[in-house]
Amino acid sequence: MNRLQFIATAWVDGRLLRFEPVLKQPRLRVIITGPEPEPLGSVIRLDTTEAGLRVSAPLHVEWATDHHEPIIAHAQRVWATITHECNG
After folding, report:
1. Cα(15)–Cα(22) distance, rounded to whole angstroms?
2. How far is it, in rounded angstroms, from Cα 31 to Cα 33?
């Protein structure tokens, strides 16, 4: 698995989420941090105005659905930072 070295975190409703880019794709992988980090899913279509959250963790679907707006907003800020740094 190829990953860029850029990693960002944000607190959403008491959970620390880690955002990691996926090489050559306009999406960020979202991981719930903790003693045993757990993938939550991905924020996709970050190169458009219609970014969306795709949840891959069945046990967290309800929580992620309730908090999709701040998760997507954080991902969009991270994406803007990554693309700004890459474009110089």
Report:
1. 22
2. 6
Question: Exposure pattern of 8-20 as b/e (b: 16+ CB <10 Å)?
Answer: bebebeebebbbb
CA distance 30 to 43: 7
In angstroms, rounded to a whole number, what is the distance separating the alpha carbons of residues 11 and 86? 25
Q: What is the pLDDT of residues 12-55, one digit of tens each?
A: 999 999 999 988 899 999 999 989 999 999 999 999 999 999 99
Q: What percent of the chain has pLDDT over 90?
A: 78
Cβ within 8 Å of residue 5, ≥6 positions away: none
What is the per-residue pLDDT for 88? 53
3-state SS class at 65: helix
Residues in the chain: 88
